[in-house]
Amino acid sequence: MTHSVPPPPRPATAPAPSELAWVPFVSVQNMMALINGIGLETALRELADYIEADFRRWPDFDKTPRVASHSRDGVIELMPTADAESYGFKYVNGHPANLKAGFQTVTAFGVLASVANGYPLLLTEMTVLTALRTAATSALVGRLLAPKGARTMAMIGAGAQCEFQALAFRAICGIETVRIHDIDPAATAKALRNLARHGLEAVACGSAQDAVEGAEIVTTCTADKQNATILTDNMIGAGVHINAIGGDCPGKTELHRDILLRAGIFVEYPPQTRIEGEIQQLAPDHEVTEIWQVLRGEAEGRRDAAQITLFDSVGFAIEDFSALRWVHDRARAAGCVERLDMLADPDDPRDLFGMLDRAAG
């Protein structure tokens, strides 16, 4: 079912928008309808497939670190990329103090456009979609790097990303239990309540140390915009895979430096990760492996059962591009698209003023 909002009244003398004026739009309501209609875990698996396909053709993309505007309150970022056919970008913010004022910490929207003529092909909410693509990326990389047969994950941080991560790792990696710790007991209770409805065993833990006990995969996702030590070196034993997704800007980290020195480190795009990720703590030439190279068989993934692997994930524009492609392919067929009169399209491309003038009556 399409959930549409009627357009505002148009002057009787104004020309009707042409077909070229309309841009497909996926609202939050329609994004939720799309995901629930497909099924959350199916959507996560499909997104992981799209992300993997685009990572496998990594050299085809224009790549740049995201453009960030930092303030004392947070950050606003643009994340652009393009291949030969399509251009995509995401607008996203990160404001940790928002929660206290009743706002989301992260919000986002995105655009997919045609390289051939520059016209937008899709405008969509990306707050929900970013949570999905982040979780899908984490689990895709977990499938590559986590120890064989891993069934337990520790989740440090029970914010908005928590349940998406847990369910993605179940859908894609086969975990059966998630051990959750958050400094706010209400956040942990929220996560346990939500995951119980999805049949995943979730255990509340009183500390990060308790949470990592017996876990083969450890995910960190905390919100404070500062250098923090969520995991200390003594908490991480041989063979563990760490999925570090909380550090995403300069001056914000979650892991003690000694963990990095023991781990095989895997990243999305080094020029961005060295600025924003856990590896900002290390020398600029510290060795890292790019995930796209592992997917293409050009670099080694997990070396052996005892190796500690770390996915130092900060999020990269190609993941958003993949998510935009998925929504573009899926939403229209599912009836989850509205049309926005967004592009001026005069009868004579040179007469934009005339179109405006005639609309006045």
From TrEMBL:
InterPro entries: NAD(P)-bd_dom_sf, ODC_Mu_crystall, ODC_N. It holds the Pfam family OCD_Mu_crystall. It comes from the Bacteria. SUPFAM superfamilies: NAD(P)-binding Rossmann-fold domains. This is Ornithine cyclodeaminase. It comes from Albimonas donghaensis.
